[in-house]
Amino acid sequence: MTIVETAPWLEFVAYGEPGPQGSKNGRPVYKGRGKARVFTGKVAQVESSAKVKPWRAAVAEAARQAMADAGHAELLDGQIVAQMVFTVRTKPKSRPDWWPAGLAWSRHLWWLCASTPDLSKLIRSTEDAMTGVVWADDARVVRYRETAKTYALDPREPDSLPEPGAVVRVWAIPALERVDD
């Protein structure tokens, strides 16, 4: 039996619009005010998505509550397996731009969510939100059981939510014993 066939160490649902983390915009840094304002030659990197901060707060709060409900007082600081399924929005009623020409289309069809935000950037913001709440460092995640991005109420995805958010599951992998030759 593998670790992911057991019950998760922690499971929670975070509601809110998932915010992608990773894309940055440059903002010039100035010194002084008014006519004395001078460009310093430096550029500050600013998160391009305004959704990141509220999303990370929603994830941290849901994780904190789940940790308390499960009776976990210590942060995970070993090998971790994670699963994250993001519900990003309701399915559009119109045909997507990428739909193959000549292929029949109906608004009753379900398709995978192949639009923004990037799945990898959603994972990054969610991992960072869980650092210091669930685990000591997101570098401890050694494997993902599943990651997915889905539309609300997708009948093919059991973890699809009725509104934007994410279902997160975490497994702690016990340290492997050393085998001497």
From TrEMBL:
Coiled coil: none annotated. SUPFAM superfamilies: Holliday junction resolvase RusA. GO terms for molecular function: magnesium ion binding. One of its GO terms (biological process) is DNA repair. Transmembrane segments: none annotated. Pfam families: RusA (PF05866). This is RusA family crossover junction endodeoxyribonuclease. It comes from Nonomuraea cypriaca.
